[in-house]
Every structure is written in C-alpha cells, then in structure tokens.
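Quick one - inputs below.
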Amino acid sequence: MTVYGTTLRSRLMLGTALYPSPALLADAIKASGAEVVTVSLRRESGAERAGQGFWSMIRDLGVRVLPNTAGCHGVKEAVTTAQMAREVFQTNWIKLEVIGEDDTLQPDVFGLVEAARILADEGFAVFPYTTDDLVVAERLLEAGCEVLMPWGAPIGSGKGLNNPFALRALRAHFPEVPLVVDAGIGLPSHAAAAMELGYDAILLNTAVAKAGDPVAMAKSFAMAVEAGRLAYDAGPMEPRDMAEPSTPVIGKAFLP
Amino acid sequence: MKISVNGQPHEVKATTVAAILTEIGYGDATVATALNGDFVAADRRMNQAVRDGDALEVLAPRQGG
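Output:
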C-alpha cells in the first residue's frame, strides 16, 4: 500500500503500548513484520527520563513511527501535541485522535475535521482515527487527509468489526483512498475479515500486547492480514441463500 | 519565580525555556516543550521568556497505540 507517497510492504501497523516488557515489544514488532509502529508523547521527568530508553529502542528497530495524539479531547490540544510530536519524532506523520466520549473513546468527529484541516495546512500527513461515518469521511478528505482510519470497535475492546456494513460502504464509496481499520480488533480472524472487505491495512495494539504470547500473536496477525488481502485480491465468491451442489449432478448413478 | 512544570510546582531562577530545562535536569534529553498550551520549538527555547505563574509542559517519546 502507498500512503502519503510512502510504499509499505506490510499491511499491519502495530501499537507499542501495554506489552509485558520492552524485550517482548521489540520481539513482537519483529514477528509482526510491521514497518509502522505508533508512539505517543507523555510528560517526562528530568530526573527519570523514562522516555529516552524507549525512543532509543524504537530507533534501533529501524521502523517508521506514527505518533499519536491519544488522550486529546480538544482541537487546540491535539494540534499542539502534533506539533510537539513532529519535532521530537522528526516526521510529519500524525495519527490524529480527538476523543469525544470517554466510555467508548469515540472520536469527536467535529473536532477531528477541524484539527485535520489545521494540521494538513501546516504540512502534516494526517492519519485520522475516525468512526465509520461516510459524511465525516468525506469531510476529512476535503480537509486534506489522504488516508482514513475508521474504528472497527472501541479502542481496546477486542470486539472486532461492529459494523461490517458501514465499513463495506466506506470501501465502496472511496475505492482509491487507503483505508485502515484502527481499533477494536481482538482476533486475527477480525483482521482477516477487514482485509477481505478490501481494507488496505490494520492498526492494532492491545490484541497483541495483552496476548498470553505477544510474539506468537503478532505472527498470527501478520499471517491473517496477508491471508485476508490475498483473499480479497483473489475475488471471493458471492454468497447465496440456497444450496448448490459442488459435485456434478450429471453422471450420478441411479441406484434404487 | 514559581512556575508549573508538567503540573508540578517548581521554583526556578532561569527565565527562558532553554535555561529552565537545563536548570531542572533535562540536559540533552529528547523532549518537546509547550508554554501555556502553545508549542515552543527547540530553536525558540533560548529566546522564549518564561514568567512567574507560567505552565511549562515537557514531553518525551512514550509507548502508544
């Protein structure tokens, strides 16, 4: 897939939070084959410098980072966080989150569009974490986004694709726009299902980080994403309501 | 003067963002700064004045989803 002029071989993007240890995080990233990992900015203590070791480890892995604005609830806060991330991570890529509701972590799509327009005007490559709403998607594209990242289900819920109909509609309406299912994926089968719908990539975190064996789960997701994409490209059969025998009827013996 | 750094009260002598970072121990750490909610780019820290009661945010890379 190609996003903002960058071609990626892997269609799996991985979050870096919630892993049992830095070593397991590094091994999971390698096992996933992901070329893009999400990162954040948080308060740093001058004495502890907790973020410096993490950043050093990520740089050593040689992956591209996609900083997020996680936890931001307002436009100004999200824009300022994006500006800070661009400087620290030396990338104009930003996963834009403007949260509107705390129980579901549902995006505030009005603030999202406004922040996306500001950041796109400032030269950012905006990856908007959005809902599966078609009209919002249209507004985000008008604001300058070249990729859309609708949720499958609420962040961290692991429920999979809550609304395959809406996701299918998005794919149909925007055939040329890179679409990434971001959030809610719990199982490799969920990821495969999204890829079979024609989605270009999957972004997930908790499903790997909280697995009993994160490294094995990362590998499993990589295989599922690849299988789903291969299936989409292969042209799945149309489902039908009634049975149709696969074994030829003609030539069957008459055995009263 | 008294300022807030990442939400915690600090008594500092320095009066610019760059000098305050040095005074309170950030040294050469990879951080981004914002003063009173506005981003302060690294190349502006030496000239960015800080006044009594200001709120400085100092952020660094961290795990994220």
